């Protein structure tokens, strides 16, 4: 059997490009990265099946020369799963665009707030003495394009709806 | 007997999901259908557990294809125990969700998608527990992940979409890694059957083994939220609806832990990466709990304790001894129940107090003593106060660590004790502030505070009620009067302000079904304490099986030689 260099090269290239895109904040690029990674993994599975051979159909090909059918079955399943997930991610992108006119991964405001906090702990302060903006920071409220619309679902800081 | 029963925990919820979709126009029928299906799954799981405990492990070749060609479902003590615990909490959460749904009056809204998706989630979890080959495990993971994406972004608000994106992208990455690992495993061994892999992987060169093992562990570590791979969890879980967060917290990470147990005991029994896992466990425990102490939001705090306590289970797995594994198995069972319960209680707190921010909650113990009890018992259980089951689980793990005797094991024992104490600190802070602080000290609700601000800004009269649509001129009730006396800020500055809408919401009695489901789950966690003897015995036998490996192998291949 002759080893092939094409498949490993393609798998490596697709993985590199996919990881690069996946690290982007833009969701469309993340989706494209995911698709590339999925294809790279499918090629990896294909190469796991060993050297190329005849179609694995009983009575049609010689049993000695057929290809291993199992990885191909696995790839088919994986393709279907990738397809479904990609459709879902597209729906999320669409929804994100409708909501905030952005399709980037948002910042976790609560994380930022906890990280930026200096002593004393906010619990120890009398909330009435604080500026309204400092009282609480319900996370993700920064995303609210229209505060009224989201007021039912998100804990907005006191007074921010005005 | 097992041949008939084993596929049912996967089949029944899937068929139920299809049925629930068909009758989505009739919410009442849909609700009873999904409840009946989950009760049936629970009954089947209990039967499987009793059979597995009495007769040992057994396997089913789905579709009649002989192993290793076809798909195998394997029921041993571990997977049957996981099934029983998982279906129990799933049932509890479903009842809670039904209660919440009817309380919020969302009949007729497209929320009817919740029931089919929830059933698909249960099917995926069951499939992952029963899977006898790696690829079926992958499919199980994908089924439950796909359902969880939908559940996490239910309603599609901005916060949920933001949290959901993090979750989806991280899960996708771990799934791809898992799939690539399966490809490499197949390339190296020529099989994906786990029993066969248990034999063949041992014959590979050591470097290849470590490579495959670390790929699988990273993929499962992301799902289980083990430390360097855990940052996504507190980011995405708290935004979901209360029942969804509860079932995620209870089940999804534990499926990852289950997969780690299988990897470490069945596929790679040599313990090559045990030291690494020990360090990961230590970091998971400490960093997770330090995060929890820093949080002021109840749900985020619980999410961080969830990460932290995954460390205990990984600790038990990394020890690799039968005692350590028994502790880990017991802890998984305990933690599924306890974490789900706590998140459901957090949902009740949110309903009662209008928020989950500890800054703004106050006086809950006076307003709802039952809620206080419902929080206190599982919270103490989580912290590991004797004699509750959390204490028993931690004690078992610490004993196993001391018995192992290495320096690293002792470090982990110390880390486990510190984590337990810090957990106590974190839940005690919520307890004193949210439940016992006099309500007048805190601007207990943002609407009240907003009303106060309006008054301060010179806006007088009836315009103070905000966008919740508080009906002006509605006759005041005694309760609302009592509430106004508490919110001193509002009344002092503007005596004729109408009652804030938030106040009305906060004083609404809790729906009986939601409270009932939570009470049942709290009772279950207490019952785990009473049943700790038999349960720990079962965990012990399961761990012995895991270390021995022969019961699993012979259940799939019979007593003949496995190649």
TrEMBL record, chain A:
It is a multi-pass membrane protein. Its main location: membrane. The keyword Cell membrane applies. Keywords: Cell membrane, Membrane, Transmembrane, Transmembrane helix. Residues 122-131 have a biased composition (Acidic residues). It comes from the Bacteria. Gene3D superfamilies: 1.10.287.3510. The lineage of its organism: Bacteria, Bacillati, Actinomycetota, Actinomycetes, Geodermatophilales. Belongs to the CPA3 antiporters (TC 2.A.63) subunit C family. This is Multicomponent Na+:H+ antiporter subunit C. It comes from Geodermatophilus dictyosporus. The chain crosses the membrane at residues 6-23, 30-53, 73-93. The keyword Cytoplasm does not apply. Residues 115-138 are annotated as: Disordered. GO terms for cellular component: plasma membrane. It is found in: Cell membrane.
TrEMBL record, chain B:
The keyword NAD does not apply. One of its GO terms (molecular function) is NADH dehydrogenase (ubiquinone) activity. Residues 458-470 have a biased composition (Gly residues). It comes from the Bacteria. Residues 131-419 form the NADH:quinone oxidoreductase/Mrp antiporter transmembrane domain. Keywords: Cell membrane, Membrane, Transmembrane, Transmembrane helix. It is a multi-pass membrane protein. Its main location: membrane. Residues 438-477 are annotated as: Disordered. Residues 444-457 have a biased composition (Low complexity). Belongs to the CPA3 antiporters (TC 2.A.63) subunit D family. This is Multicomponent Na+:H+ antiporter subunit D. It comes from Geodermatophilus dictyosporus. The lineage of its organism: Bacteria, Bacillati, Actinomycetota, Actinomycetes, Geodermatophilales.
